[in-house]
Amino acid sequence: MKRTLIAAATAAACSYTYAQSSVTLYGVADAGVEYLNHVPNAVGQANKLVRMTSGNIAGSRWGLRGVEDLGNGLKGVFVLEGGMALDSGTAVQGGRLFGRKAYVGIDSSRFGQLTLGRHHNLLFDLIISFDPMLFAPKYSSFNHDAWLAGRTDNSAKYAGTFGGLTVAALYSFGVDSSVANGSEVPGNSRIGREMSAGFTYQAGKFRVGGAYDQLNGSSAATAGKTERRYVGAAALDINPISVYVGYRRLVSQLVTSMPRTDLLWAGVNWNLAPTFALTGAAYKTNDRTSAKDPVSFVLSADYRFSKRTDAYITASYTKNNGGSALGANGYDGSVLPGNNQFGTVIGMRHSF
């Protein structure tokens, strides 16, 4: 018995000694100059605007990613990732230090990964690869519905890949901790709750994905009300061209403006050369409760100097039907209701 215990202890010590672990510092720096027309000034008149912007085709960020091999196909993992405005040096995501991601968990090569903390939602994880513009902060489906790239506090997330199938589920005890009494309230677990599930499947050159996401209200008065999104998308990758289509239905009891909408998109990515790519896309929101049906068209060109540095130019034209007020950057008040808007941004991105 004594020899058995000594052998077990020695094996455990050796396993710990030779365990592979690492911490990686990484990030993205993205900045450019943007032009917009029909932007309201202080007295509500439409004007042109030229400005410097951060996070145009990818949000500027920095982060730490860690992994430790625990043996038997298990790994301990963590991510701490913060967003920044490169033009001003300030933190974004409400000033949070790690506002983009902050989680810890365990990864199994057989069963998938389970993590706890602050995450991107599953709409982002599962559907981003089906948007021609990859949910870019500017000029993508993100501008029609920002929750497609939302983040959720106090959440547990599972994701597993089995052959060509990836499945995922997420539960949040309170989506936004910055809302007073908006999450994890004693006696009312529905306040700020989120439940989500989805999948992607790849068979050769064809890919398909779908997700369901449900949010509850962030107060005691609205905890029984929900906001639900149903998303389906597909892509066909025929090198050097990829073709994308997508659909999202929103049914909300939490908003009074555009509470039931359909969002449709389609686009093409064409890698003309190893260093140059063109992307074209169209996005349309159909409001089922009014005539507010904005449509946006996007064209983007990207030139890669290296694997880590590229330059880009992106242009967008938004047509606001029925008095809608969608700007090139979303529903941010940057365009007068009913006015169309042209926007373009030229910039550079470096990844490290």
UniProtKB/TrEMBL annotation:
Residues 7-322 form the Porin domain. GO terms for cellular component: cell outer membrane; pore complex. Keywords: Cell outer membrane, Ion transport, Membrane, Plasmid, Porin, Signal, Transmembrane, Transmembrane beta strand, Transport. One of its GO terms (biological process) is monoatomic ion transmembrane transport. Residues 1-19 form the signal peptide. It is found in: Cell outer membrane. Its main location: membrane. It is a multi-pass membrane protein. Pfam families: Porin_4. Transmembrane segments: none annotated. It comes from the Bacteria. InterPro entries: Gram-neg_bact_OMP (IPR050298), Gram_neg_porin_domain (IPR033900), Porin_dom_sf (IPR023614), Porin_Gram-ve (IPR001702), Porin_Neis (IPR002299). GO terms for molecular function: porin activity. Homotrimer. This is Outer membrane protein (Porin). It comes from Cupriavidus metallidurans (strain ATCC 43123 / DSM 2839 / NBRC 102507 / CH34) (Ralstonia metallidurans).
